[in-house]
Amino acid sequence: MNQDTCECPVAPAKGSPAAGLFLKLTVISVSLVAWWFLYGALEPFSLWLTYTVIGLGPGTHLGEAVAFFCLDVPKIFLLLVLVVFGIGVVRSFFSPERTRAILAGRREAIGDVLAALLGIVTPFCSCSAVPLFIGFIESGVPLGVTFAFLISAPMVNEIALVLLWGLFGWQIALLYLATGLAIAMAAGWVIGRLSLESWVEDWVYQIRMAKSYNASPDLSWNGRIDYGLQAVKDIVGRVWPYIIAGIAVGAGIHGYVPAGALAAIMGQQAWWSVPLAVLVGVPVYSNAAGIIPIVQALLSKGAALGTVLAFMMSVIAISFPEMVILRKVLKLKLIGVFIGVVAVGIILVGFLFNMVL
Question: Taking the model in full, what pTM does it have?
């Protein structure tokens, strides 16, 4: 054979972008296999750690609480790392500038749907609420569409969605997704119909932001993987104290609250439990990852699903700290309308779930 004409595959040159991508994909593949085995071993490990190593008695209040804590800490962190990395890669396709470009100029009905859907995958946190709001308004996005996005982004939280899937199954996760999107779209439509543009702070309309919709260059797959890894570092590094605190509260509920005790307070028969859950959730400062362990413990003790979902949604979507930040761009009357419309939507969803489930 003439070796000069042989077309054998050539390995990527060492140090080339292709070689770096191949190495990253190999590490990710090995990590996923290790993740799978670790996740499957969590429950027997937590029981062994609680009852054999620590020496607590099975069936005791403290033993049940510690077993819950030892199981949920690694479980939620394993889920969180996997979810944040995957969503980080997806988010690398959706910069805030690109999101504004997609929504600008859309008819309001179509815009509400697109805004709610984009809210799931677009980078969003409390600190970005003000610049995003200003950018949307300045780009010509209608006020109702802007609110559909601002409601959907925190409420239909991708971390909460996948954690709910991992802990409770796809049915609960799908219910959370569908109702969160419905509330965001309906609230955006209602606010848009009320024509409340004059209740936005005047200085917002006077700002002229640069139309840099394509400011972020298109990333290579190397860059997207790095974006996902950086998202893990940033997000997990920021939320881990809330997760530990949430699991600790959930462990206390799981270990010390008698089975069925919450049914009288947060059960289906207590009609006032849903509005009360929303009122209690507003001043609570937490995030989706931190509130999920509490949701898990409440459900295990007899609380109704609709009531617990209403509590979780109010914590995430209309918390007091979020309203303080939005006060920079909204007059108090518009904040009141925003809270009222979203709260009514959450309460209706809570009642609906408690009636049909």
Answer: 0.65
